[in-house]
Design brief:
Elements: E1 3-6, E2 12-19, E3 22-24, E4 43-47, E5 68-73, H1 91-105, E6 110-115, H2 117-128, E7 133-139, H3 152-160, H4 168-179, H5 199-208, H6 213-219, H7 227-234, E8 241-246, H8 254-261, E9 267-272, H9 279-282, H10 284-294
Parallel strand pairs: 4-5, 4-6, 6-7, 7-8, 8-9
Antiparallel strand pairs: 1-2, 2-3, 2-5
Length: 296
């Protein structure tokens, strides 16, 4: 079941909670008094990419055994309502949905995790509300919020790491078509986003596919990003930051992602070997260890 809360514009938003006991539906207060520890750890607010239903995050490779995961369904996805104003799908507007969730949870500060496009939301949140962030984890992050672009050459170089895979010829042909503006099938390049392309990866790919085209289009609409002011604000963020890339990730290659890490005063950059865009799927244990150790 799902817990609901109201966004600033009245849109009914949803989140679900996962910890070592499984899915949870009840609201619980924020951090307890100093010196007391919740059995399953303090909450981590998780913003999915897409934007799409947060279910594809699962339990983040077992991270829920160490921390209580609060998984936000972005507006118009999963169990969250479609907003009356489509302009509110913009990334800069979604930032205030995270703030509404913080207030709903009764937390003075939050540990915040963003994956893929959701990392743009997390970065913009840290820039706007730096005093509300305790720790920030950016997992195979999108970089549009800070104006870091990824060239076709960089993507080709990442793709060539997989040249010995049996699916490579067809996937690389599709990548070339997309890079050169000749159309192409986005699903055909899906193997480049995975550490391994097996039946489990194919199922997860289907589960992670965004279902609201209007939300996807609106997320990066004109005005969604202000890279210059965001970069300036991040220079003053005092919270520790973890930026995690996947070695094989075509969407968020390690090189450009490391540039994002360099924008923070206190950031650790890590590359998970053998992982793609979903490192908790490719190799759960090292992922949960790296992120769990950071979120202490």
């Amino acid at each position: 079941m799902t817990t609901y809360f109201a966004a600033a514009d009245g849109t009914r938003l949803a989140h679900r909670t996962k910890d070592r006991t499984g899915d949870r539906t009840e609201d619980r207060p924020g951090r307890r008094a100093e010196g007391r520890t919740e059995r399953v750890g303090d909450p981590v607010v998780c913003v999915p990419g897409g934007p799409t239903d947060s279910r594809y995050l699962g339990d983040l490779g077992g991270l829920s055994a160490r921390r209580r995961l609060v998984l936000l369904d972005p507006r118009g996805t999963g169990d969250s309502a479609v907003p009356q104003d489509p302009a509110t799908y913009r990334c800069d507007r979604v930032v205030d949905d995270v703030e509404a969730l913080r207030v709903h949870l009764g937390l003075d500060r939050i540990d915040l995790l963003g994956h893929s496009g959701g990392a743009n939301v997390a970065v913009a949140y840290a820039a706007r509300y730096p005093h509300r962030v305790r720790r920030l984890a950016l997992i195979t992050p999108g970089t549009a919020a800070v104006g870091i672009t990824i060239s076709g050459e960089t993507r080709r170089a990442a793709a060539m790491l997989r040249k010995d895979e049996p699916w490579f010829p067809d996937a690389f042909s599709a990548l070339e078509a997309l890079t050169e503006g000749r159309g192409g099938d986005w699903d055909a390049i899906a193997p480049f986003l995975r550490g391994r392309w097996d039946d489990a990866a194919r199922r997860h790919h289907a589960e992670a596919r965004p279902g609201n085209a209007e939300a996807v289009a609106g997320f990066a609409a004109e005005g969604a990003f202000d890279p210059e002011s965001t970069r300036a604000a991040l220079a003053a963020v005092e919270a520790p930051v973890l930026v995690l890339a996947g070695e094989y990730d075509l969407n968020s290659p390690p090189g450009p992602v490391s540039e994002l890490a360099a924008l923070f005063p206190d950031a650790a950059f890590a590359v998970q070997p053998g992982a793609g865009h979903y490192p908790w799927i490719d190799d759960p244990e090292p992922f949960a260890a790296t992120v769990g150790d950071f979120l202490v």
